[in-house]
Design goal:
Strand order of the largest sheet: 1-10-9-3-7-6
Strand content: 35-45%
Largest sheet: 6 strands, mixed
Radius of gyration: 16 Å
Order of helices and strands: EEEEEHHEEEEEEEH
Helix content: under 10%
Shape: globular
Number of strands: 12
Distance between the termini: 49 Å
Number of helices: 3
Structural class: mainly beta
Length: 202
């Protein structure tokens, strides 16, 4: 029996990640059937914009877990495939681009998140030319990395038709200064560019 009881969330529900629960290293898994999804993390300030360029953590980010080494990686394509995108503070490790689909994983160390970050949004976009409506059984699961226990999950079961980008959920700070996860599931048209327009300062 795990330390935590797995909780199913509905849209708008929140799950506390209080320090008193011993939660710090969090694994975020987005799983699905059919289609090719890419996941992203957005480290936002109090104005709802990314705190810096590295606050947009996605498969093609230039800020990676290790620097490019031509002798080791050969070329940039191999480099991007073998390393993970990372936020400037090192708190968020993004997913590698899993082109075969099925699962993408992000890691968040809550204690490393920079003070000016008020939210960490988790989004997913589908391969160009398709919509989220063609994706089956999409679900986001929040896991305690230390114990391996799944804490909560949220099924992305809205009737998405034309939407090709979804904000699955967000980590935010509550009134007591503790982190919590909120299930969202908001769908948008326009793919990744729509999210960039929303969260990246011009």
């Amino acid at each position: 029996m795990g330390k935590f009881n797995l909780k199913k969330l509905d849209g708008g529900d929140r799950f506390s990640l209080a320090k008193s629960l011993g939660l710090d290293n969090i694994r975020v898994e987005l799983t699905w059937q059919d289609g090719d999804l890419d996941t992203q993390a957005w480290l936002l300030n109090q104005d709802g914009l990314i705190v810096n360029d590295e606050g947009f953590v996605f498969y093609n980010s230039e800020n990676r877990t290790e620097p490019f080494d031509r002798a080791k990686h050969g070329n940039k394509k191999n480099y991007l495939a073998s390393t993970r995108p990372m936020s400037a503070d090192g708190a968020v490790l993004g997913a590698k681009d899993e082109q075969q689909g099925g699962i993408e994983t992000l890691n968040i160390c809550l204690s490393k998140i920079a003070p000016d970050v008020q939210e960490v949004l988790i989004s997913a976009t589908v391969y160009e030319g398709t919509s989220f409506g063609s994706v089956k059984d999409a679900k986001i699961t929040i896991i305690d990395e230390e114990s391996g226990d799944a804490l909560c999950f949220f099924e992305l079961t809205k009737d998405y038709k034309t939407e090709d980008a979804v904000v699955a959920g967000r980590f935010l700070i509550d009134d007591n200064g503790e982190w919590e996860f909120e299930a969202m599931g908001n769908g948008y048209n326009g793919g990744l560019q729509t999210l960039v327009d929303m969260y990246a300062e011009e």
